Amino acid sequence: MGTIFEIRATTYKADHHLKVEGDVWRWVCTNSSRVGDCLRRRFCGSFNSNPIKFPGRRWSSASAAARFCLLFLNQLHSFAEVWKMAATKHFPRMVSHVILDLDGTLLNTDGVMNEVLKVFLVKYGKRWDNKISQKIIGRTPLEVATTIVKDYSLSLTTEELMSAISPMFSDQWCNIKALPGSNRLIKHLRSNGVPMALASNSSKSCIEAKISFHQGWNESFSVIIGGDEVITGKPSPEIFLEAAKRMNVDPANCLVIEDSLPGVVAGKAAGMEVVAVPSLPKQAGLYSSADEVINSLLDLHPEKWGLPPFEDWIEGTLPIEPWYIGGPVIKGFGRGSKVLGIPTANLPAENFSPILSEHTSGVYFGWAGLSTRGIYKMVMSIGWNPYFDNTEKTIEPWLLHDFGEDFYGEELRLAIVGYIRPEANFPSLESLIARIHEDGRIAEKALDLPIYAGYKDSPNLKNSMLQRNCHS
Ligand code: ADP
Ligand code: RBF
Ligand code: MG
């Protein structure tokens, strides 16, 4: 079937078309600008519609063209019943306000929580084993305490547990790190004038204490609301509805960002758009009610929700605060990756588990120093390699150089300077390999950019980091 509907939005740089062929609609853009890519992602879907023709027009920028198309589509939506299905399925609603959860979403609270519970339970002759993590994430402090008392058959009341454990947590608040992408997101929304609320099941005073260790956070939120300020915490929508009310905005115009299942359920019940960022690995499947599930805040694309896009991506890469690891090259999984053309020089992950847990899984790149050979470009994955469904989080650095031999036992030092994408699963080994090669090309090219090239000379690549890792 030919084109039955087309919006043409010509900018000075490119031609944008929203084409509808049969019941398939597609965004077509004549160049590969970032806006073009984002539109293409967004305008893919299908629906049934009657033929409508729209005259071509010229626009001053791609985003003006996009706004025009959206406006037009929204109008059409309100007139034509047929659009309903496509619009709810494929058009995320445009929002104006963002409501963020704190623990596990902006803050890496899990590490501290595990540590405190481990120390506490030992006193009662029990061993913390992470098994109940999924049960307590996103719950109110009272619910968490009740679950622990019950699941560990402790001989104390919920109240006694809470009063014993609270000071242990407060002592640790200064040690809670921001999750990757938190500071970037807060700064971005704030500098673009997008109002933000913080809504957490923990008490308002705890929230304030925790965020006091993070510069600029307190003043970035127009509303901060704790679980003690509502009758029922998440999964009840109450806390989000109250946050919207205090921000003076319709709940339908809010985007919730949440790591926990109760939080996602609460956000949807409040009639809001919800992006889930699960804090436990391999849990994405549980979050089907969310409008989108992302791996980390680094993967958030605000423009999908009508918010200003991040502008820090450069040639398919995102610069990050560099971090450094090093150690002797050990045997990996022995999958014969070399045969596939992607040997990965594995490091003993247990030597730096704290630093590894700080960084979300994904594909990163940077520079690699081999003690006796020199410094090379490097691309790597961190995580559970979904294709192989590993049980351990590992680091898989592929040095972009042909050595023609192994170097097991040699000391390898890495400077990780940028991010490329989340880990993914693939339908075939061929498609995984093709994607890894694409990652390699992206890293190879990006590392010549001044923003990344300088780290090649980092002293961390030349001096032994073994000692430092032991202390970190
Ligand atoms: P393993 O299962 O031990 O990781 P691989 O098939 O992934 O085995 O091969 C990795 C080994 O190959 C590294 O430990 C290293 O000794 C060697 N090697 C050779 N060239 C490279 C390269 N360009 N990048 C990483 N490792 C390489
Ligand atoms: N494994 C996956 O399952 N999914 C990925 O998205 C993925 N991306 C990778 C990207 C790079 C740059 C590298 C070097 C490896 C990646 N891997 C990924 C891991 C790959 O499966 C693994 O290194 C080899 O199978 C060797 O164990
Ligand atoms: Mg390997």
From TrEMBL:
One of its GO terms (biological process) is riboflavin biosynthetic process. Pathway: Cofactor biosynthesis; FMN biosynthesis; FMN from riboflavin (ATP route): step 1/1. Residues 318-448 form the Riboflavin kinase domain. Pfam families: Flavokinase, Hydrolase. Keywords: ATP-binding, Flavoprotein, FMN, Nucleotide-binding, Transferase. It comes from the Eukaryota. It is an enzyme of class 2 (transferase). One of its GO terms (molecular function) is riboflavin kinase activity. Its EC number is 2.7.1.26. NCBIfam families: HAD-SF-IA-v3 (TIGR01509). PANTHER family: RIBOFLAVIN KINASE (PTHR22749:SF6), RIBOFLAVIN KINASE/FMN ADENYLYLTRANSFERASE (PTHR22749). This is riboflavin kinase. It comes from Ensete ventricosum (Abyssinian banana).
